[in-house]
Design goal:
By secondary structure, the chain is mainly α. It has one domain. 63% of the residues lie in helices and 0% in strands. It has eight helices and no strands. The protein starts with 6 loop residues before the first helix and ends with a helix.
Length: 204
């Protein structure tokens, strides 16, 4: 029996809601001087890394469920190009000789989808704006996780760019805490909300 498509984005939404509750709590602690700025930055970075990991998990789950024919897409023509009855066998095929399957940058997901799904759908249906957002998320993630000069330069050039920011907002954590639309709308919230929308669009 086909799996409910809406279960996947709901699972991601629940994880994002938990991260948001944590973000609000630590901001409150910082406002009360119970948490210093350096520790707050570490929390923001950790929350963002968990967010990206959750998004990768969503992409992986959606991919395998779609290829296995476990999801029903009544509106869009989504169909697998292969017939595999065992999810374990499919994972072995997709993984190949690699230690793990990488889903980001998103071009990896698109390329894999075109191999196993007709026209790569639903993964190929995202807009340029959505794929650009995912790439900015990846550059930000890499600047946090790798802490290399190259990763930081890509973040500075492609994410920060010419955006007017205070000096303290030009680090990955500072950028995530910045509020381009005023109080209550940090970059962290804007990015996670866009990822949520992407999850819904992929399963629409």
């Amino acid at each position: 029996m086909p799996r409910a498509r809406r279960d996947l984005p709901r699972e991601f939404l629940k994880r994002m809601a938990r991260l948001e509750r944590t973000r609000v709590r630590v901001e409150d602690l910082h406002a009360k001087s119970l948490l210093n700025s350096r520790d707050l930055d570490v929390v923001y970075e950790g929350l963002f890394l968990e967010c990206v990991t959750a998004f990768e998990t969503f992409l992986e789950t959606l991919f395998f469920a779609t290829v296995m024919g476990q999801l029903d897409f009544p509106v869009r023509r989504v169909k697998s190009r292969i017939e595999v009855r065992s999810s374990q066998v499919l994972r072995v095929i997709v993984k190949g000789d690699r230690q793990f399957v990488d889903w980001l940058p998103y071009e990896h997901t698109e390329r894999r989808a075109k191999m196993y799904l007709r026209q790569g759908r639903p993964f190929s249906d995202l807009t340029d704006a959505q794929t650009s957002l995912i790439q900015r998320v990846v550059w930000t993630r890499n600047a946090i996780a790798h802490q290399s000069r190259e990763a930081r330069q890509k973040f500075d050039r492609n994410v920060l760019g010419s955006t007017p920011l205070l000096p303290r907002e030009r680090s990955p954590a500072g950028f995530l805490r910045s509020q381009p639309r005023g109080p209550g709308s940090t970059q962290f919230q804007l990015m996670t909300n866009e990822l949520i929308r992407i999850c819904w669009d992929l399963t629409n």
